[in-house]
Known about the structure:
This protein is α/β, with parallel strands linked by helices and about 500 residues long. It contains eight helices and 19 strands.
Amino acid sequence: MDRRQFTKLFAAAGLAGGALPASAWSRVLKAPSGARTGPWQAASPMLADSRLHAAQQAFLDLRFGMYIHLNMATFEEREWGDPKTSPKRFNPKHLDARQWARAARSAHMGYGCLTTKHHDGFCLWPTKSGSANVMDSSYPHDIVRQYVEAFRAEGLEPCLYFSILDLRADIRPHVITPAKVARIKTQITELLTHYGPITALVIDGWNASWSRIGYDELPFHEIRDLVKRLQPDCLISDYNDGSYPGTALYYTDVKQYEQHAGQKIPPHSEIPSQSATTLQKDWFWKKSYPTSTLRDAHQIVHDWLKPFNRQHCNLILNAAPNRDGLMDDNVLARLAEIGRLWQPSGTVPRVAPAFEITTPNLAKNQPSHASSLADASGPDLAFDDDLRSYWQADAGHAPHWLEVAFPKPTPINTLSVVEARGLGDYGHASRIRHYRIEAMIAGRWRPLFAGGTPQHFEFLRTGNAQVVERLRLHMETDGQPPGIAEFGAYNEPALR
């Protein structure tokens, strides 16, 4: 069936006037990997946010950054501060952010990132939110201001780290209240209005398996909208790879990998990302660190920094200040050694525009059906917003289809089809040769899109939201039963 025949099919279906036009749905970005027919436009970078793409590329041009983990844990010989410890214990009495900045510059870094608030909830700035902060400590000075001014003076871009999980304020799973969300918004507003332009806000303790504060309980879009309203070019980078693995941007402008915890950049990654690890053994300073072995400079440069930069990924290396608020001599020496081995030259590869999911998955946990299922791999696993689980059809039961029903007519403008590649024994190659999507609109099934082999993360977008009652995905395969990790439906904001 060619494009003209598909147009006739749409006309026969009665799609006229205010109904879905034949060119409504577009495949996002990469070139097709199989023949495609139907109401779709050629893949186009216009389907990504152009202003966001410029900010992502500017961030990747910085290449190498310094993480600075300094907080209550620095004074407690632990990785998370004790929320019951008195703020008076915090006393980096000789703190010199200019020393940090000069050390970063000696390694030819392009930016820094300071832990403004870690998981215990102590704030390194004089917040008016009611949380414990530096003004309650034995060092009553605004450390965030000292940091941003020192780094800018050395020509370095400032980024800020912020933990959603906050044990002092009791911001933890299943006890989130409007007042607690308001506290978070107050703190983020202070950080993004008192300290000038911030390149990126790195968020932790949110939608992670260990923090268990989900985007449903503390809505992502509310925080994102606040950040973008205050500083439209400030990137959001959330540590959510454990929940949304793979080479796609879900609820983050820059994919964040905690290299120190074993997370790795997938081969051939084509999205903007950052990999974080430590120069010392762990994130926060310990008494043994002045004489401890540090990461090898050659490993940092040749095994991490250079290869990562070729994959659209920055390296951010943590250098923890000691209890005086200073970098130890061995850290200063190692950073200078890195600077002798490496300095930026030429340009980093240009990253392609990447589509980003920012709104809730409207198909999550909705009633679902399928042509068949293999053992316990029910269709609900394709609608659980979990990319690590998947529905699989039973062998020998073609044709294959997957369906979701919404509780009421629901506007959508974005679809995702994520095949189960790399999960279980499914294999890494696609089993799908052709697929098509149809929607029930006003009680009638109507075709939306048809294509060949999908990308691993296939995103489809239409300019005007369509109000649908059901969605159905049909699949033709190479003979093996197909598997779908997620068939998502979203109503994304207009692109800028």
